[in-house]
Design brief:
Order of helices and strands: HHHHH
Distance between the termini: 32 Å
Structural class: mainly alpha
Oligomer: single chain
Radius of gyration: 11 Å
Length: 73
């Protein structure tokens, strides 16, 4: 695994944890939700920009993407 891949993976794990904390979810449920409503895909695609933002801004972006794709958070 390259360093860039490891950085992306670490970032996604932290985002899942932050999302779970924000919405009072178990991490497993947050992962399932973010995967289902394209949040994980969004983080992969826009990592170069999102990782420069605060976690509050990233959580807001994730919530908006998930709502756009049928989620409720």
């Amino acid at each position: 695994m390259t360093k860039a891949d490891r950085n992306l993976l670490d970032y996604i794990v932290v985002c899942i944890s932050e999302f779970a904390n924000r919405y009072g979810m178990h991490m497993r449920d947050a992962y399932i939700y973010l995967n289902r409503y394209k949040g994980i895909e969004f983080l992969k695609e826009f990592y170069d920009v999102e990782h420069t933002l605060s976690f509050d801004d990233t959580m807001d972006d994730l919530s908006a993407i998930c709502r756009k794709n049928g989620g409720v958070a």
